[in-house]
Write a structure and sequence with these properties.
single chain, alpha+beta, 3-stranded antiparallel sheet, 32% strand
Length: 134
């Protein structure tokens, strides 16, 4: 979180994670708009030049991408320390550089998951092809 050596979590981690969000829809154009808010709310005894807590919304042509971070947390949503959640009508795909997991939505009428359940997968840089096939 030192300005001389990085731009905070958004720039330090964002380049490694936001690219995965852009792969899914093969995005090649900039967002239509960006809205951000944040501040230094954690570790008040530390000197900060970049926000330790931040939320950013990117409005794209047909969906919204949201970045959120809080410095120093070890576990986030879905029990992982970092990653992305692609939330769809039929399931949520949670993915990071170590692997991915699919969380199907429930169909009340059929009394079954909307898509077949799949075991958690580990994997590396093959995520673009995985995302496009799910």
């Amino acid at each position: 979180m030192f300005w001389d050596f990085g731009g905070g979590l958004l720039t330090d981690w964002g380049v490694h994670l936001i690219d995965m969000a852009l792969w899914v829809k093969d995005i090649k154009t900039p967002p239509l708009s960006v809205n951000a808010s944040g501040g230094n709310y954690s570790f008040k005894d530390h000197a900060h030049e970049t926000f330790d807590t931040m939320s950013v919304n990117y409005q794209l042509n047909d969906y919204v991408m949201t970045w959120e971070h809080t410095a120093g947390t070890q576990k986030g949503p879905y029990g992982i320390s970092y990653g992305l959640a692609f939330i769809g009508d039929d399931a949520t795909l949670v993915i990071n550089r170590q692997g991915w997991e699919l969380f199907p939505e429930w169909d009340d009428e059929k009394k079954a998951p909307k898509v077949p359940e799949m075991p958690k997968k580990s994997g590396g840089e093959s995520h673009p092809s995985i995302c496009k096939t799910l």
